[in-house]
Specification:
The structure holds 2 protein chains of 2 kinds. By secondary structure, chain A is an all-beta fold. Helices cover about 0% and strands about 50% of the residues of chain A. The mean pLDDT of chain A is about 95. Classes of the chains: A mainly beta, B mainly beta.
Chain lengths: ~110, ~120
């Protein structure tokens, strides 16, 4: 199985801050990576696919990068509605696997 | 509009078999490339992928759980069913079903159900 490791597990930040989350795959997954946002009590929401392709309606302050084994999700200017938990997921092959999540909290 | 809705028991006893149903609309599991997965999330923990069934009736399972899982589909009723045998309290989680739009363009979950909380307890 491909292991996905996210860091940090949590981050405290203020509105307007730039936040970067990293995700590392245990083997090369090319650009087959997704990022999801999950708010308490809600289902995850797909933000980014193919490592850097924003879903329709996702604000442009979100961006994704990387390929191979190392990936990033960046929020350029944190907004109140962005406080949530973020997960990466490798979409290269089954069994599909998620990272452990990064909780973005209010400082 | 794509929708998915999970249903099943809220409480099951240890060693019993859990059966969950995902009823969907807005797409067809007869369409080439489409698949539906089950994913779970224990309280306060991360997402865990469990199983997938695709338009061609191919089935894939979590490596660690596959001996107790079965996924099936009823395309006429737009349903996907997951059964999990011999459940344990560690299987307490919110269970989600989710769609993959096209397996060849990336196994991304673009639509999710709202989830159903299952508690395993005697």
């Amino acid at each position: 199985d491909i292991q996905m490791t996210q860091s940090p597990s949590s981050v405290s930040a203020s509105v307007g801050d730039r936040v970067t989350i990293t995700c590392r795959a245990s083997q090369d997954i090319d650009s087959w990576l997704a990022w999801y946002q999950q708010k308490p009590g809600k289902a995850p929401k797909l933000l980014i696919e193919a490592a850097s392709s924003l879903q329709t309606g996702v604000p442009s302050r979100f961006s994704g990068g990387g390929s191979g084994t190392d990936f990033t999700l960046t929020i350029s200017s944190l907004q109140p509605e962005d406080f949530a938990t973020y997960y990466c997921q490798q979409a290269n092959r089954v069994p599909l696997t998620f990272g452990g999540g990064t909780k973005v909290e209010i400082k | 509009q794509v929708t998915l809705n999970e249903s099943g028991p809220a409480l099951v006893k240890p060693t019993q078999t859990l059966t969950l149903t995902c009823t969907f609309s807005g797409f067809s599991l007869n369409t080439r490339g489409v698949s539906v997965s089950w994913i779970r999330q224990p309280p306060g923990k991360a997402l865990e992928w469990l199983a997938l069934i695709d338009w061609d009736d191919d089935r894939y399972y979590s490596t660690s759980l596959k001996t107790g899982l079965t996924i099936s589909k009823d395309t006429s009723r737009n349903q996907v069913v997951l059964t999990m045998t011999n459940v344990d309290p560690v299987d307490t989680a919110t269970y989600y079903c989710a769609r993959i739009r096209h397996m060849d363009t990336g196994k991304y979950f673009d639509s999710w159900g709202q989830g159903t909380l299952v508690t395993v307890s005697s």
